[in-house]
Design a protein that fits this description.
Layout (H helix, E strand, L loop, with lengths): L1 E7 L10 E6 H4 E3 L5 E10 L11 H13 L15 E9 L8 E8 L10 E8 L5 E8 L5 E5 L2 E5 L4 E10 L14 E5 L4 H12 L4 E6 L2 E5 L5 H12 L2 E6 L2 E5 L4 E4 L4 E2 L2 E19 L18 E12 L3 E5 L3 E2 H10 L4 H13 L6 E4 L1
Parallel strand pairs: 16-23
Antiparallel strand pairs: 1-19, 2-15, 3-12, 4-5, 4-7, 5-6, 6-11, 7-8, 8-11, 9-10, 12-14, 13-14, 16-17, 18-22, 19-20, 19-21
């Protein structure tokens, strides 16, 4: 049984530490009408070496029959008995201002009981958006970053062989034209990470170009342009995207409890605190012994003798408590230093995650702890 104790000292800072640096506007924001749209489709993967769907997947059998019917072959469902085909869902994203003929990557995921998609070929699959219109078609060889082999009940598997991609396997068939000027007649700039200070800095930087810019809220800036013809708007957007803007970076610590991963900026600061960690081992053993009465003759009963044989438990309790490992940190401690010191003390990643959570509840971390 392990115990962890965190005690924070008497002073804490209130304002979270955040660094500021100059970055290009296009790296922290996007144009309001420039966005990706998700596509999805249902298709078949053929050419599998016996690792496709079984006959239990009725939808796959029906899909094979319907596909063959398109080529003039009438085959009953009961006559189809092949594990070289797998039903899959095909997903992708199409960006704004994409034109017909542009190529995109597509992801392929098995939906039946196929064991692997290695070596398969995706048949021509239409991809639709949320509006029900077909924006792209996909086809090609599947690239799978894993494998699965089975022989005599033994299985060897790496990654997920039932998911793969078709690099540049999708072809755009319908333009996805976004908009540059919103309904207010202005160019909207949307921040990828909402921040009031960064929004104001963006508006001030754009104003130096001679455009009227206004921060609507922490995540959006609207710009009024003197000319609204498309060529002038495109040139204005290109000028704004190349601006270097002073951006505030939030102090974040990302903790994934499932994988035991901790990701943090090296300059995230921690207030003064003391951490004590010790191990307590408790062992309880019980042994049973037999107690025999004295002057007992086996096989002969003596009147008036109340002696009898009893089982006596003998319990032994031992406690082992290691000396607690204590680490002291000054006010200028960073998360990097904190984690490194805890590692030096022999703490596991799981223990460090628990300590970070306790420190965050105590208000000792000058940043935002995000648990995944």
């Amino acid at each position: 049984m392990q115990a962890a104790l965190i005690a924070a000292t008497c002073f804490f800072t209130v304002n979270a530490f955040a660094a500021e640096t100059y970055v290009r506007l296009k790296d922290i924001a996007r144009i309001e009408g420039d966005r990706d749209n998700a596509l999805i489709g249902y298709g078949l993967v053929v050419g599998l070496a016996g690792s496709g769907d079984s006959r239990r997947s009725k939808s796959t059998i029906r899909s094979i029959s319907n596909t063959l019917r398109e080529f003039g072959l009438i085959v009953a469902d009961d006559d189809i008995n092949s594990r070289n085909v797998a039903a899959v869902m095909v997903t992708s994203e199409v960006g704004s201002f994409s034109e017909r003929g542009d190529r995109i990557d597509v992801a392929v995921s098995a939906i039946g009981d196929a064991r692997s998609l290695i070596g398969g070929t995706l048949l021509l699959t239409p991809l639709e958006a949320i509006d029900g219109k077909t924006y792209a078609v996909a086809q090609g060889q599947i690239s799978v970053g894993g494998y699965k082999f089975e022989q005599f009940g033994n299985t060897e598997q790496k990654n997920h062989p039932t998911v793969g991609i078709v690099p540049k396997g999708g072809t755009i068939e319908r333009e996805n034209t976004g908009y540059l000027v919103n309904k207010n007649g202005k160019v909207g700039i949307v921040l990828r990470e909402a921040d009031f200070g960064t929004a104001i800095n963006i508006a001030d930087a754009i104003s130096t170009l001679g455009y009227q810019a206004e921060a609507i809220h922490s995540g959006k800036v609207e710009v009024s342009l003197p000319a609204t013809n498309r060529n002038a708007v495109v040139r204005a957007i290109a000028s704004m995207e190349s601006l270097n803007v002073l951006a505030s970076q939030k102090a974040l610590i990302i903790v994934n409890e499932r994988t035991g991963t901790i990701v943090s900026g090296g300059d995230v600061q921690v207030n003064s605190l003391t951490i004590a960690h010790g191990n307590l081992e408790l062992s309880i053993r019980t042994q049973y012994s037999v107690s025999q009465p004295q002057d007992v003759i086996i096989g002969r009963h003596i009147e008036g003798n109340n002696s009898k044989t009893v089982v006596v438990p003998d319990t032994n309790i031992s406690v082992k408590d290691d000396n607690a490992k204590v680490a002291h940190f000054s006010q200028t401690t960073t998360i990097f230093t904190l984690v490194s010191e805890l590692r030096r003390l022999g703490l596991s990643t799981r223990d460090i995650i628990v300590i970070l959570q306790a420190a965050d509840k105590a208000g000792a971390i000058n940043g935002k702890l995000i648990l995944q």
